[in-house]
Specification:
single chain, 261 residues, 8 strands, Rossmann fold, six-stranded parallel β-sheet
Length: 261
Amino acid sequence: MAKSIVFIHGLWIHASSWQPWMDFFNKQGYETLNPGWPGDSATVAECRANPDAIANRGVTEIADSYAKVIAGLPEPPIVIGHSFGGLLAQIILGRGIATAGIAIDPAPLKGVWQLPFSALKASLPVLGNPFNLTKSKSLTFEQFSYGFANAVPEAEAHELYDRWTIPAPCRPLFQAATASFAGSETKVNTENTTRGPLLITSGEKDNIAPPILGKASLKKYNTSVISDFKLFEGRGHSLIVDHGWQEVAEYSLAWLRRNGV
């Protein structure tokens, strides 16, 4: 039976952005799924037309929706997530319902206190207004360019923005921002010694999730279980959808094979 991979998108990027990755891993013998978050519509255009459907969704609700998908599979899958999807992948791996996890430029888990200026600046369009908590919000091109596409040419940034961006719920960002002193939604069971192997990656030039956050998350894990880190030099937060996506996919595949999954 072919091993399954569940891809988990993050804030502001539609689930269909995983299609090149799914095609790549299908050719390598994996079965792939890319479920959306609760409230997501099937297409980018539909999400943009109905932003209220995704509003007020929190981390636990989203994680539970993926757990429900996983419960319907014949065996625990590999989970690969980007940005907030990378945090969700770690939550699911910590629950013991996945065989391995890859967290690509993930949002920080509870207990990571570092707050680099670039991450704060990238989050301000949401966190700057407490009334955004229960709303959904889209990024302007300028906000997307700074947070996601600062490491690619401007023409490519426009293409990525037009093709993939969708409104996103604001609640997860507030939950991550307040996790150090309140709430447990972004808590990961880092002491689970029966979990599968974990890879955390960071893009060197990532403004939303700078490498310091990925490295800090890694340090939270029990060292008796495989927990690896990979830095992609010269890459920003758009690394799963921009022209260099295959470098990240090929590294992920090689890492999975090294770890027998």
